Amino acid sequence: MSDLERNYSFLRAYVKGEAAIGFWNMIGKIVGAGNALILISHLEVFQYGTYILIIAFYSLLSGFISPILQGVILNDIGRFIGEGNEASAKRLYLETVCVRLCTALIIAIVVFWGADIVAQYYDEDIGLLLRIIAPLFIIDTIYNAMKLLFQVRLRFHTMSVRAVVYRIVRFVLLVAAVFFSTLTVTEALVIHVIATLIAMLVLVLPFRNVYREWKKVIATPQWLLPRIAMTYGKWQFFGQVSSQLTSNIRPWLIKFFINTEAVAVYSVAESLFGVVKSFIPTETLVSLLPREARNHERAGRLLLRGTKYLAIGSIAVALVAGVVVPPIAVLLFPKYAASMPLFQILLISLPILSFRAMATNFLTLFREQKFLFVSLMIKVAANIILPVSLLYLFGISGMAIERSATALLLAFIMYGYLVRHNLDASLPWARILFHFDNEDKQFLQNLYRRSASYARRKIYNTMRLFSSQP
Known about the structure:
Blueprint: H1 3-42, H2 45-62, H3 70-82, H4 86-121, H5 124-133, H6 136-152, H7 156-180, H8 185-202, H9 204-211, H10 225-230, H11 233-247, H12 250-257, H13 260-277, H14 285-288, H15 296-332, H16 339-347, H17 349-365, H18 369-394, H19 397-421, H20 429-434, H21 438-467
Helix pairs in contact: 1-7, 1-21, 2-13, 3-4, 4-5, 4-6, 5-8, 6-8, 7-8, 11-18, 12-13, 12-18, 13-16, 15-16, 15-17, 16-19, 17-19, 18-19
């Protein structure tokens, strides 16, 4: 296949994938805004802070299941498929799923039965809340197993449906709770579990259809996951474990240094920032880039141009969000007006995080797990030292400042390493990164044509569907 044809196929897959994810994300955001409105409006600030702390505890433990080695495994399965080695791809997938399910089962049992011990030190309500979230470890692990297959098969449309189903079910149940009962932290968590279960079950049939592609493929008999985990994968493993610990302990640091109400205030700011960040189209890159690994020079150009476009796009998104979102949010959530300055501080990190996302994807592509481990250790150190010191100096604003400071430090380190060690020496990286030339113009024209063509087809198919209705 020529480079032009490869460029076309990559661009087509990227546009199609990001459009599918973006469409479902948009619907999900609308419904998700309704969910947030109900939760924030009907829970007291202290109750909402407690809810966030329980979710943070769940995220802390679930981080030891599916996220571990995720980048390495997705990259290697994608490489196997790109090389036509379906037997090894299937073997690595099955090994990964088995290990994750066993780990999830153990953690769920420990949390369920260990809730009594926690309740002795706090109160019975905390023990009940922990029992409620215990099934989530298994449910989310099953979903992530299906999501992994959807990713490597580039079924981005199917993968994106889950979030919308989850939010719609959750919205219906929250509305029912408000009208027919009293919405408490307990009910909010029960609704979270039920919605997660239903959203996972919706994907069972599509998963079976996609898995059929491996029906006649006999998995290779050699064990793959242990070798990956013990070689280049070990760096990502230890790094991710440390990163999960420090990332999900942040709400608890806020509680320790300030109070539970401050957890809620910061969480609202971070939730709004998360919505804005989801407009940056990076979801499909982790699935598409491994297919470009054989052409080192081409991969380098994708890195540089992708970084440039994402940086420009994220700056534009941040500027618009900084002006538009705060007045609307204060109108909807007046008791969280204190969250808006935090949200605006967080927006500073958006271009930096986009910059870093490209670097992380390409470091994984080039199997630079050892360096990624070093980077994560730096992040872990920063996530411990900076929040503590900045919370002490600036209060809750310090946590938002830390986000940008850590992102900037890591982006500088990662990109510097890529330029020195992984880019082709003949590649004019400074010119590609900081200048706009004919190749940029051609790429953006192609991107526009592909996007417009995809949108027209979707609109046409939708109109045909409605016109065929009696």
